[in-house]
Each structure stands twice: as structure tokens, then as C-alpha cells.
Amino acid sequence: MRVELEKSVRASDRRPSRAGRKLGWSLALLAASFALACSDASNAPATLDARADSDARFGELVPFSLLDSSGRVVTNAELAGRVWIASFVFTTCTGPCPTISANLRAIQGDLPEAGVGLISVSVDPATDTPAVLSQYARTLGADASRWLFLTGEAAEIDAFLRSSFALPVERAVAGSVPVGEHVTHSTKLVVIDAHGRVAGYYSGAEPASVREALERAKWLGAHGG
Fold first, then answer.
1. What is the span of the domain harbouring residue 193?
2. What is the model's pTM?
3. What one-character-per-residue DSSP string does the chain give?
4. Residue 160's domain is classified under what CATH number?
């Protein structure tokens, strides 16, 4: 099941970049929609972009320890009890990251007062220090009480994305491509329930899909995760 999930998530992702073409990175990341159906706890068919009230789950968070934009340590235990919509970006990105972050900013005001939050994990931690992420958050107008920005060691972030979400990260050799194109990564949003389980994948670049992620998170928040 895990292998099939990884194949499905990879096949559903899209992050176009000249860097990817120059390096010949896999175009398996560039399909437009999920093709594989998984099964929820009742064995009913469910797609990875789960409907708001679906029982489907696609794995769970592995233990992690990262830094937020203030330099504070954040662990998986801290996320428990709240529903999250997670994204994966980097601050110098000239591809889809600005669109993903803008789409999250657009729904920030529609989050419930409690129970649901946003997380953006940097896939370029060498550049994205807590101070850099803090400035990025201010520029976005992010509400610190609702939106976490996380960074840390590259190896831990890569392991976190692969083990928790079946999402890949690829980095070009330094100096081989423009800075804003040197990381190839997922453009998915991942909804995480209050028990630390993956509850759905959605396109972060498409406003309609971002809204679906929001509705999923709100439903989970209102029904105990």
C-alpha cells in the first residue's frame, strides 16, 4: 500500500521548471490529477483528494523536530489536537511557491478561530533560516497564531516529507541552475488530522483545490479530527 501511495502522489504532482528539464528529472511528478483510488477504513473507494467528510487516511506523521520562524523547536507532538493544512515551499522560488503561499494567504481569514492551522515547510533550509522565514511570513501577512513556518536540517526535512507524506525533494548542484529553480518539490497541500494522520492531498496551485483542502480541514476540526 505504501509503495502504491508513493507512486500515486508522485504521479499526481506538478512543479514545472527549467531546472527539471535541464537535469532530466522525472516527469512522473507532472501529472495533473490523482489517478489511483485508495481505500478508507470501511474499504469504500476514496481518492487522495478526499471529500470533506471522508474516513480516508493515507499514513501518519513520523516524529520530527524542526524550527519555526522564531527559532523555537516544534515537534510532531505539538501538532496533536489541531488539524493542519501543510505546504512545501522555499522563499527564493520563482516557480509555483508564490502562488501556493498566496492561495493559503487567501484562505487564512476563513480558518476557524480554533482547531485548524496552516504549516509551510521550507524545502531549502540552507537559505531559509528562521529569520528569513520570519520576513517571508511578514511579507505574506501571515497570522502567527494560525500559520507556522518550519525549517531545519535538509536531511531531516527530506526524511519528514518522504516518510510522512510520500513526497520527494530534489536539489540541483549549486550553481548549475538559477537560484529560484534549484529545488524540485511537491506543490501539494496535505491535510493532517488532529491525530497526526494524513487525511488528503490537494493541489496548492489551484484555488478550487485549495478550497477543497480548507473544507476538509474545517470538517475535521468540527468533528474531532
1. 2-23+57-222
2. 0.79
3. -HHHHHHHHHHH-----HHHHHHT--GGGG-SS---EEE-TT--EEESS--TT------BPPP-EEEETTS-EEEHHHHTTSEEEEEEE-TT--SSHHHHHHHHHHHHTTS-SSSEEEEEEES-TTT--HHHHHHHHHHHT--TTTEEEEE--HHHHHHHHHHHH---EEEPPTTSS-GGGSEEE--EEEEE-TTSBEEEEEESS-HHHHHHHHHHHHHHHHTT-
4. 3.40.30.10
Among 11-15, 87-91, 196-200, 201-205, name the one with the lowest average pLDDT: 11-15
Most distant CA pair in the chain: distance in Å? 50
Q: Are 112 and 145 in contact (CB under 8 A)?
A: no
Please name the residues in contact with 183: beta carbons below 8 A apart, sequence gap of 6 or more.
Answer: 90, 93, 123, 124, 169, 170, 171, 172
Domain contains 15: yes
pLDDT value of residue 24: 29
48 domain-assigned: no
Domain-located, residue 45: no
Residue 184, in any domain of the structure: yes
Specify the number of domains making up the chain: 1
60, 197 Cβ separation under 8 angstroms:
yes
